[in-house]
What we know:
The complex is a heterodimer.
Chain A: E1 3-7, E2 10-12, E3 18-25, E4 34-39, E5 45-51, E6 58-60, E7 68-73, E8 78-83, E9 92-99, E10 108-111, E11 115-119
Chain B: E1 4-7, E2 10-13, E3 19-25, E4 30-31, E5 36-37, E6 39-44, E7 51-55, E8 59-60, E9 68-73, E10 76-81, E11 90-96, E12 103-104, E13 108-112
Parallel strand pairs in B: 2-13
Antiparallel strand pairs in B: 1-3, 3-10, 4-5, 6-7, 6-11, 7-8, 9-10, 11-12, 11-13
Amino acid sequence: EVQLLESGGGLVQPGGSLRLSCAASGFTFSSYAMSWVRQAPGKGLEWVSVISGSGGSTHYADSVKGRFTISRDDSKNTMYLQMNSLRAEDTAVYYCAKNSGSNCYSHFDYWGQGTLVTVSS
Amino acid sequence: DIVLTQSPDSLAVSLGERATFNCKSSQSVLYSSNNKNYLAWYQQKPRQPPKLLIYWASTRESGVPDRFSGSGSGTDFTLTISSLQAEDVAVYFCQQYFSIPFTFGPGTKVNIK
């Protein structure tokens, strides 16, 4: 059974940093691209970032480019999102999602339960 | 960026009746090399993460009831629930994975009439 477990969310002041983790199990982690998608309270879904199965390709939404960094450690079956220079508008539930293939251009077939990030003073 | 619009914003349907909603893309998401539409549909129930229903515009994900079906190509897509059940109350989002940034539609909220 595929399981994705996010952690690392919490309350942070504007300008601060957080690192989210997504621990994966139930599939061959290194064979799949992985993504982060966020959802602000009461709002729709916004794709944030994707990393290919090899880790050699990463992409970001313009809203987070230069501030967020996606990475993966296949030895730990874990994906990360390093978030710096956080803003109030980054407040959201952050979902980890498994892509359906190793290529970034694939749909999301499994989602974690999400972790809440709140940026506020 | 590809913009996805969904209609209607919300929909109330009687149990057992058909529910149909639409997703329109600002650009074609049909990749000519493989003739696949890079369009997925997700269902999100309150306080839950999204769940994949349909990918490649019309392929039903394993385990998804066959009352859910997707159709369309290029820029115009439809999700149909052939016989609405109480457990189908949710928001339905379309998403394109044709080009980065990947984008989602704003969602259609489905309720019971």
